Amino acid sequence: MNQYLPYILCLVLFLIGLYAVLVKKNLIKIIIGLGIIDYSLNLFLVLIGYKKQGIFPILSKNGQAQPIVDPLPQALVLTAIVIGLAVTMLMVAIAIRLYEKYGTFDITQIRKLKG
Amino acid sequence: MKEKNNNSGMTLIVKTVTRLTVGLIMLYGLYITFHGHLTPGGGFAGGVILALSFIHLILAFGKDFIIEKISEKITSVFESIGAVLFLTIAVSGFLGGYFFKNIYGKGVPFNLFSGGIILPCNLSIMLKVGLGLFCAFLTLLLFISSKE
Amino acid sequence: MNNIIPLFVILPLSAAFLNSLLGRFSKGFSDILSNIVCILTTFFSLIIIFNLNLSSNNIFTYRVGGWVAPVGIMLVVDHLTALMLITVNIVALCCCIYSISYMERYTDKWKYYALFMLMLTGMNGVIITGDIFNMYVFLEIAAIASYSLVAFGCESEELEASFKYLVLGSVASAIILLSIALLYSYVSTLNLADISLTLANIVNVNKGYFIKFISLLLIVGFGVKSALVPFHSWLPDAHPSAPAPISSMLSGVLIKTLGIYSMVRILFNILGVEQKILYILVVLGLISMFVGVILALYQWDYKRLLAYHSISQVGYIILGLGLSTPLGILGGLFHLMNHSVFKSLLFLTSGATEYMLGTRDLRRMGELNKKMPLTTFSALIGSMSISGVPPFNGFWSKLIIIVACIEAKQYFAGLLATVVSFLTLSSFTKVLKYGFYGKAEANHKDTVKEVPSSMIVPMIILSLCCIFMGLLLLPDIKQYFLDNVVNVLKQGTIYATKVFELR
């Protein structure tokens, strides 16, 4: 059971983020919820590359070769973090403009489009 | 002689410590970028730290001092230069063989100037990511302050 | 010949970066550069179609950076890729020519062109890549560019629609990333062909359940991007609020490359799913068709009505592809091409009427056939194509889908498809009667005249495509192009063996 504990943490974080996106009514809380979903997925990607008795995949100048963890998911996570950053910046910019137009952050009041 | 307004920004202690440390933060960001092929880090992480050093300046001294020197237009031009530089490196590989080919010499391992095109690519990514983050911060700041 | 493949990504990307650097300094620079790049990519995609039959195995490959797959990224072009490339690039060229005079009403035209070229880069990249994480990166590039373009005018409705689209699109991308992570943990490789070969060699008791779980996650993730019915709620708000050329790009090509092409490529060629999962696609397609057209019958806003009809026609495509018989796949893919062309045409005409009249409400337009004859002609051709009136292209693809339903013994699906086609016809009769041919209101200004010529030319090009695209089904031309496209999906996982020989 102990070896599955990090994956259960990823699932709990994903569910907390999904709850924030679905239930909360404040725009900023929805943005934070999407950020938590991104963190949980990045953590899951890094955890996949773990091998038993592996160390960090960096070769120093006078070192010898040792068993390493998988470095490919770490490169994927670097890209995914930057994509998450770009989406968060865009969302915050749109939220600031929405506050200027509607005067509130409440999504039940921002409802001009219907039908 | 222009009279400096000492009331904007934060207190005197914060301003003094900022003067001492902001150069070190910028140097740390450059170090992480330049050694991207030897130690962890690379363009993205170095760019974010470089942007943080500029934001530190604005937070400590107030917006009005900094806008004259580092305006939004100059930042945007440098950011686009970073992007065009990255594409130039990739296209120069395309003309010489394959797209993104390693056209520089590989050099001796663990030296600073080794590893082919990784070093120029890291530099252009640092320009793009760091200045892009700072330009977005400046745009939002100018938008909010123009509405008050 | 292999060396022109990365040009589909290099040319729009350099146009985007050069627009953001130099576009602010001179007035017409971004217009000229973007249009030249669109003409070049259309020209190269035509070259690829005419040369694809001469290559070995009908596949072109290209190694990025010279690294051999599976260590490096590989770009793969086969017949399905060629079909998507020609569709995307012709629609992009028409929208780019249209934007020259339409976007004069907005500020900062160089920013618009930079984002437009980024969106084109993302779509071309999704189509030509052979690596699953590369597909995710290009998908995000196109999606982020489209989120910003929907909010381009900064009115209050556009911002609200863009925020809704953003949140739903981000959750969908998160689900796609989760399924990529699960797939990587199982096969330890990212190359599409290599995933398929490794999956065939793994012997494990739980492999069937695992593939079904990943397929369901991918159907949900890509289903949000292509607006299938439980996940469609962003589309009726986002597509009307965007500027008109962006609406036609979004509705015409973006929901098809990001949603339908990616889903079909991974499900058919890589994972090799079985009939039970594809039956879910048939059910979702039927629900989408029906709900889309019923909700469209209430609408009086022209662009919102067209957006609901997009949901309905995407249901047709998914129905055809879900049947997975050769005739069904032919109908689905041909309807994909046709829908891109006539839906873009209809959105461009809606932009032309909004440019002249300033309103999108159908009850306030009218008598446009005397004042704007060419726009009315294009709208007439588009409406007849989407309703399935012979001899336009919509009729042939809908006929093939209905015959495929009956051939696969799904009689209820065929009946529902016919009924939905009649309801579409009635909805567009309403559009033509109130919008273009009926009586005008009393306060119609006299300044209404024909739109500028750079907005007329793309509409004429797309109308000619609508009229003549039925000729692709003639037996000589069909065996040259469309039969090969159907074979790509029909052969399933043999695709991986063929690609791997050429690495």
- In helices, the fraction of residues of chain B equals 55-70%
At CATH's second level, what is the architecture of chain A?
A: Orthogonal Bundle
The largest sheet of chain A is: none
Order of helices and strands of chain A: HHH
Which chains share the greatest interface?
Answer: A-C, 33 and 33 residues
Q: What's the count of strands of chain A?
A: 0
Attribute tags:
heterotrimer, B: about 150 residues, mainly alpha, flat, C: about 500 residues, two-stranded antiparallel ribbon, 21 helices, 2 strands, about 75% helix
Describe what you observe in this structure.
- The complex is a heterotrimer of chains A (115), B (148) and C (503).
- Chain A is mostly helical.
- Chain A is 63% helix and 0% strand.
- Chain A has one domain: Helix Hairpins.
- Chain B has 148 residues and is mostly helical.
- Chain B has one domain.
- The mean pLDDT of chain B is 82.
- In chain B, α2 packs parallel to α5.
- Chain C has 503 residues and is mostly helical.
- Chain C has one domain.
- Chain C has a two-stranded antiparallel ribbon.
- Classes of the chains: A mainly alpha (115), B mainly alpha (148), C mainly alpha (503).
- The interface between A and C is medium-sized, with 33 and 33 residues.
Task: Reconstruct the topology from this structure.
The complex is a heterotrimer of chains A (115), B (148) and C (503).
Chain A: H1 5-23, H2 27-48, H3 72-102
Helix pairs in contact in A: 1-2, 2-3
Chain B: H1 12-34, H2 43-61, H3 63-69, H4 72-95, H5 118-145
Helix pairs in contact in B: 1-2, 2-3, 2-5, 4-5
Chain C: H1 7-22, H2 29-51, E1 60-63, E2 74-77, H3 79-102, H4 109-128, H5 132-150, H6 156-187, H7 192-201, H8 207-225, H9 235-241, H10 244-271, H11 275-296, H12 302-323, H13 326-357, H14 368-371, H15 373-387, H16 393-407, H17 411-437, H18 453-468, H19 475-480, H20 482-490, H21 494-501
Antiparallel strand pairs in C: 1-2
Helix pairs in contact in C: 1-2, 1-4, 2-3, 2-4, 3-4, 3-10, 3-13, 3-18, 4-5, 4-10, 5-6, 5-10, 6-8, 6-9, 7-10, 7-21, 8-10, 9-10, 9-12, 10-12, 10-13, 11-12, 11-17, 12-13, 12-16, 12-17, 13-15, 13-16, 13-18, 13-20, 15-17, 15-18, 16-17
